[in-house]
């Protein structure tokens, strides 16, 4: 158990059977009445953000989140197969658990899996990945007045806006948080 007075940004807690991470918190001491803690919490299972108010000194459960390195092997339909790098156990995750991450997963890529009491919550991607351009239209000379961009499809199927000088076969550095072009790799 942990007191809400000890809240810190990034702390993981269990409230009403769900797992949350503390995004923001504020200790409030009104002139009249008891002190309380106003907090913004992100649900780690579904990604929803909620605002909760707790009485000062109230105790809630601390959630211990495990992170471990796994290797992405392959996908078959809507199932994505991974292998634990330490125990070599294989397991699968459904596409609905990895909606955003599938845009960046390449075979044999190492990612971190997040779990709570054996339940896999999600995966943590690196901040950027190298992806090869498989399709883009050629840049037209003269369209470069104000940093013009064009659409490019990378090997995972993600569409990215890129500068006109990018060609098919180029390897790009893509930001996994926003899905945007950073630079050539």
TrEMBL record:
Residues 67-121 form the Translation elongation factor P/YeiP central domain. Pathway: Protein biosynthesis; polypeptide chain elongation. Residues 129-184 form the Elongation factor P C-terminal domain. Pfam families: EFP, EFP_N, Elong-fact-P_C. Keywords: Cytoplasm, Elongation factor, Protein biosynthesis. GO terms for cellular component: cytosol. One of its GO terms (molecular function) is translation elongation factor activity. Involved in peptide bond synthesis. Stimulates efficient translation and peptide-bond synthesis on native or reconstituted 70S ribosomes in vitro. Probably functions indirectly by altering the affinity of the ribosome for aminoacyl-tRNA, thus increasing their reactivity as acceptors for peptidyl transferase. One of its GO terms (biological process) is peptide biosynthetic process. InterPro entries: Elong-fact-P_C, NA-bd_OB-fold, Rib_uL2_dom2, Transl_elong_fac_P/YeiP, Transl_elong_KOW-like, Transl_elong_P/YeiP_cen, Transl_elong_P/YeiP_CS, Transl_elongation_fac_P. It is found in: Cytoplasm. NCBIfam families: efp (TIGR00038), PRK00529.1 (NF001810). HAMAP family: EF_P. Belongs to the elongation factor P family. This is Elongation factor P.
């Amino acid at each position: 158990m942990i007191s809400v007075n000890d809240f810190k940004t990034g702390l993981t807690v269990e409230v009403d059977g769900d797992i949350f991470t503390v995004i923001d918190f504020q200790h409030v001491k009104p002139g009249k009445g008891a002190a309380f803690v106003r907090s913004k919490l992100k649900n780690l299972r579904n990604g929803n953000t909620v605002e909760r108010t707790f009485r000062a000194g109230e105790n809630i459960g601390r959630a211990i989140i495990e992170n471990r390195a796994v290797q992405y092997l392959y996908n078959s339909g809507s199932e994505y197969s991974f292998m634990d790098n330490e125990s070599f156990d294989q397991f699968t995750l459904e596409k609905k658990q990895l909606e955003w991450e599938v845009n960046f997963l390449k075979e044999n890529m190492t990612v971190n899996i997040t779990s709570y009491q054996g339940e896999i919550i999600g995966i943590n991607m690196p901040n950027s990945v190298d992806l090869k351009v498989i399709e883009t239209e050629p840049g037209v000379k003269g369209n470069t007045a104000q940093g013009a961009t064009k659409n490019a499809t990378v090997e995972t199927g993600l569409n990215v806006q890129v500068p006109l000088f990018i060609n098919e076969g180029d390897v790009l550095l893509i930001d996994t948080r926003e899905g945007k072009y950073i630079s050539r790799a």
